[in-house]
C-alpha cells in the first residue's frame, strides 16, 4: 500500500511538471512559471504533510524520489559554478571590461558587502533585544544534543583559526583543486586565480599581440559554450523550485517552529528590514527599488527554496547582466565574492542574534555599547570565508561566538528551525550580492540604466 501511495505522489509531481512545461510552450514568462512552481510546491507539500506526516515511510521515500528533480537541479547549478566564474572573469579581461577599474571594482564590491553585513549585524542585535530573546530557556532534546556533540568537534578548529589565517584561506594554492570546489573558500580562490590569468593575458597581448588574440578567441568560444550550458540549466528552474519547495513544506517540523516561533519571527523581522535597507540603498543611487524587486524576485525565490548561494550563482549573474544591465565583469565579481564574503543573512544577522541571546549567560550585558560595537566589528571581519552552501551560517556563528568567548551550545539548540530560517538568510545573501553589483556598476558607470528601468523582466529561454 505504501509503495502505491509513493507512486501516486510521483505521478502527481510528473503531471505538475508536464503542466508547467505546457506553460513554457505557450510562452508564459519565466517569472510567472517560477512563482507557479513555488505555489504548487507549497500546496502539494502541505498535502503530503497533512496526509502522511513528516517522517512517515511514504513521505520519506516520496521526497527521496522528488530529490531527483530538486537536488538534481541544484547539483546541475553547482556543476557550472566554477567554469562560469573562471571563464566569465577571464572573458571580462579579454573583452577589456575590467582593465581600467579592476582595483576600484574589487574595493567597492567587498566594501559594500562588508558594510551591509555590519548593518545586518546591527539589525540582528536590535531584533534580538526588541523581542527579548533569551538563550537560557532553550531546551535540548535528543536531536539537539546530537547536533551539539557534532559541533564540539568543529570548535577546536574554529578557535585555532585567526583572522589572518582566515584571509589566507582565500588565496589559491592549488587552482585545479579549487576548480573542483574542494574548499569552502574555493570560489573566491577561483576569482583571484581568474583575475591573475586575466592580468597575465594583458601582458601577453602587449608583447605578443598574435598570441593574445588567439587566447582571446579561445576564451570567447569557451564563454559562448558555458553560457549556453547556463541557459539550458536555468530553463529547469521552475521544475527545480517545484520539487524543492514541496520537500520543505512536506518535511518541516511545524511543532518546533511554533515552539521557537519567537526566534523565527525575530529572525524574519531582521531579514525583511535588511532587505528594505537594500532597497533604500538602491533608491539613494537613484535606481527604482520597485524594478529591483520585480526583476530580482525569481532569483531570490530560488535562493529561498534551495538554501544555496552557490547554486544560485548562475541565476544571480544572469539577472544582474540581463535584467539590471550590470557589466559582466562586475556581475561576476559581486556574485562570486558574495558567496563567501559579507553574507548579510548567514554571516551578519544570524551570529549577531545568537551572541545577544547567550551574552547574559557569560555575565555580559548585551545592551552595552562596547559589547554591541565589538560584536558588529567581529561579525563584519569574521564574514570572510563563510561557505555559500547550507551550513555556512553555523560556521559563521561558531567563529563569532568562539572569538567573543561565548557558549556555542545555542547553535545546536536551534537545529529544528534551521531550515526555515536558512531559507530567508540565503535569499538575503543573494540580494546583498546583487545589490553590491548594481551599486558598484552605478558608481563606476558600468551599468545600463535603460535595461534596469525596462518594465518587463526578460525570460530565460533557449
From TrEMBL:
It is a multi-pass membrane protein. Its main location: membrane. The keyword S-adenosyl-L-methionine does not apply. One of its GO terms (cellular component) is plasma membrane. Keywords: Amino-acid transport, Membrane, Transmembrane, Transmembrane helix, Transport. The keyword Transmembrane helix applies. It is found in: Membrane. The chain crosses the membrane at residues 6-22, 34-52, 72-93, 105-129, 185-204, 225-245, 265-285, 371-389, 395-415. Gene3D superfamilies: Sodium:dicarboxylate symporter. Signal peptide: none annotated. InterPro entries: Na-dicarboxylate_symporter, Na:dicarbo_symporter_sf. It holds the Pfam family SDF. GO terms for molecular function: L-cystine transmembrane transporter activity; symporter activity. Belongs to the dicarboxylate/amino acid:cation symporter (DAACS) (TC 2.A.23) family. PANTHER family: L-CYSTINE TRANSPORTER TCYP, PROTON/GLUTAMATE-ASPARTATE SYMPORTER. This is L-cystine uptake protein TcyP.
Amino acid at each position: 500500500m505504501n509503495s502505491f501511495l509513493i507512486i501516486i505522489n510521483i505521478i502527481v509531481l510528473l503531471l505538475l511538471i508536464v503542466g508547467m512545461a505546457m506553460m513554457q510552450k505557450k510562452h508564459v514568462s519565466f517569472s510567472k512559471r517560477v512563482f507557479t512552481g513555488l505555489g504548487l510546491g507549497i500546496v502539494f507539500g502541505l498535502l503530503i504533510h497533512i496526509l502522511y506526516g513528516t517522517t512517515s515511510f511514504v513521505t520519506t521515500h516520496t521526497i527521496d524520489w522528488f530529490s531527483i528533480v530538486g537536488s538534481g537541479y541544484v547539483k546541475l547549478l553547482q556543476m557550472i559554478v566554477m567554469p562560469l566564474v573562471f571563464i566569465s572573469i577571464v572573458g571580462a579581461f579579454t573583452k577589456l571590461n575590467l582593465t581600467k577599474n579592476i582595483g576600484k571594482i574589487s574595493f567597492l564590491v567587498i566594501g559594500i558587502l562588508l558594510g551591509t553585513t555590519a548593518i545586518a549585524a546591527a539589525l540582528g542585535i536590535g531584533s534580538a533585544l526588541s523581542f527579548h530573546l533569551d538563550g537560557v530557556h532553550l531546551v535540548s532534546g535528543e536531536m539537539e544534543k546530537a547536533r551539539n556533540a557534532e559541533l564540539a568537534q568543529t570548535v577546536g578548529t574554529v578557535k585555532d583559526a585567526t583572522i589572518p589565517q582566515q584571509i589566507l584561506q582565500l588565496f589559491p594554492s592549488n587552482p585545479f583543486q579549487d576548480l573542483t570546489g574542494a574548499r569552502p573558500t574555493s570560489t573566491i580562490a577561483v576569482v583571484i586565480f581568474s583575475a591573475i590569468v586575466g592580468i597575465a593575458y594583458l601582458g601577453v597581448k602587449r608583447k605578443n599581440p598574435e598570441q593574445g588574440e588567439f587566447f582571446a578567441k579561445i576564451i570567447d568560444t569557451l564563454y559562448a559554450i558555458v553560457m549556453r550550458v547556463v541557459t539550458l540549466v536555468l530553463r529547469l528552474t521552475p521544475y527545480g523550485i517545484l520539487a524543492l519547495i514541496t520537500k520543505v513544506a512536506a518535511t518541516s517540523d511545524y511543532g518546533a517552529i511554533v515552539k521557537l516561533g519567537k526566534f523565527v519571527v525575530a529572525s524574519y523581522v531582521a531579514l525583511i528590514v535588511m532587505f528594505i535597507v537594500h532597497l533604500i540603498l538602491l533608491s539613494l543611487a537613484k535606481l527604482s527599488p520597485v524594478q529591483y524587486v520585480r526583476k530580482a524576485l525569481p532569483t531570490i525565490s530560488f535562493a529561498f527554496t534551495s538554501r544555496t548561494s552557490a547554486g544560485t550563482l548562475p541565476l544571480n549573474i544572469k539577472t544582474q547582466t540581463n535584467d539590471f544591465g550590470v557589466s559582466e565583469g562586475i556581475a561576476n565579481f559581486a556574485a562570486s565574492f558574495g558567496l563567501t564574503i559579507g553574507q548579510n543573512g548567514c554571516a551578519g544577522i544570524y551570529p549577531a542574534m545568537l551572541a545577544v541571546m547567550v551574552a547574559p549567560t557569560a555575565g555580559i550585558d548585551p545592551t552595552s555599547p562596547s559589547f554591541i560595537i565589538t560584536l558588529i566589528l567581529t561579525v563584519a571581519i569574521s564574514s570572510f570565508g563563510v561557505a555559500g552552501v547550507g551550513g555556512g551560517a553555523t560556521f559563521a556563528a561558531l567563529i563569532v561566538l568562539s572569538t567573543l568567548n561565548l557558549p556555542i551550545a545555542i547553535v545546536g539548540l536551534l537545529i529544528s528551525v534551521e531550515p526555515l530560517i536558512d531559507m530567508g538568510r540565503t535569499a538575503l545573501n543573494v540580494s546583498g550580492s546583487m545589490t553590491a553589483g548594481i551599486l558598484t556598476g552605478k558608481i563606476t558607470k558600468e551599468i545600463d540604466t535603460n535595461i534596469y528601468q525596462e518594465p518587463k523582466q526578460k525570460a530565460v529561454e533557449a
